[in-house]
Amino acid sequence: MVECERCHKKFVSYTAFSQHFDTKHHNAQRPLELERGLATEKELDSYKAVANYAHGPSKTKLAVFLLILIVASGVIGYLALTPREQSTATNIVAGAIAPDFTLPGVNGASFTLSSYRGKANVLLFFNEGLSCAPCLTQMADLDQLNPQFTSLNIVMVSITGDQLSLLSDWAHSSGPQYGKVLSDQSLTVSRAYDMLGPDKSMMPGSAPGHSFVLVNEQGAIIWRQDYGPYNMSVPNDEILAAVKQALGA
């Protein structure tokens, strides 16, 4: 029996008590006891329904129950064995097609990766930009490799998450003379290339890490190396050696 504390009427179930309370005391806050009792009563009703179904004498019920189990097992097996399509970011490895993109550059012109298809190899250097002094030094140092990059038909492109105006101020005063510098302020491209994880960036989710991606003339990635989040300065000869090896030069 359940007793209403307001009018002291008694009820045989919490369901009946709930109906009474909602009708007679609808402006009052429901007692916590009522809510708990209803939850327990629902669980008990569910248990009784399952128990009655499982232990019922009907062969039809048993057949239906077994059919449900078979179908459920088949669905689970299908989901477990069916290959999942991986996200674009997880496929940014050697052998994959590089996601196309267009970004604004500090020289006032936009850069589109696919426009170099069939014309040149493109070396993408993702880095943390203006918040990382070694990254800025790395961009300037890579400019020293311009003769070697030219001989290998490589276009050097640096990508940061900095605001274009701020990045332009730096580039015009002390930035690369030959390589292109692009602003990915929305981080759309950095995200597509899987550059924002804690295993790659010192500022996960807010800036790309220190990574290189080499895209060949056919638009395929032939080399990728993530140096972040701890190594923010890679010797030029190490980069050049890796690029030459990837190109088979």
Topology, element by element:
Elements: E1 2-3, E2 10-11, H1 14-24, H2 32-55, H3 59-81, E3 102-104, E4 110-112, E5 121-126, H4 133-142, H5 146-151, E6 154-160, H6 164-174, E7 180-183, H7 188-192, E8 211-215, E9 221-226, H8 236-247
Parallel strand pairs: 5-6, 6-7
Antiparallel strand pairs: 1-2, 3-4, 5-8, 8-9
Helix pairs in contact: 1-2
Structure described in brief:
This protein has 8 helices and 9 strands. The protein is an alpha/beta fold.
Keywords:
single chain, 249 residues, alpha/beta, Glutaredoxin, 5-stranded mixed sheet, 9 strands
Q: How is this structure best described in words?
A:
This protein has 249 residues and is an alpha/beta fold. It folds into two domains: 2-67, no CATH class; 90-247, Glutaredoxin. The chain has eight helices and nine strands. The strands form three sheets. It has a five-stranded mixed sheet with strand order 7-6-5-8-9. Strands 1-2 form a two-stranded antiparallel sheet. A two-stranded antiparallel ribbon has the order 3-4. The termini are far apart. The relative contact order is 0.12. Residues 75-89 have low confidence and may be disordered.
Largest sheet: 5 strands, mixed
Mean residue pLDDT: 83
CATH superfamily of the largest domain: Glutaredoxin
Low-confidence stretches: 75-89
Q: What's the total helix number?
A: 8
- CATH fold call of the largest domain: Glutaredoxin
What structural category characterises the helix and strand content? alpha/beta
**Based on the structure given, which CATH architecture of the largest domain is correct?**
3-Layer(aba) Sandwich
Structural domains: how many = 2
Give the amount of beta strand, in percent: 15-25%
N-to-C order of helices and strands: EEHHHEEEHHEHEHEEH
Radius of gyration: 32 Å
The amount of helix comes to 40-55%
Q: Total strand count, please? A: 9
Query: Strand order within the widest sheet?
Result: 7-6-5-8-9
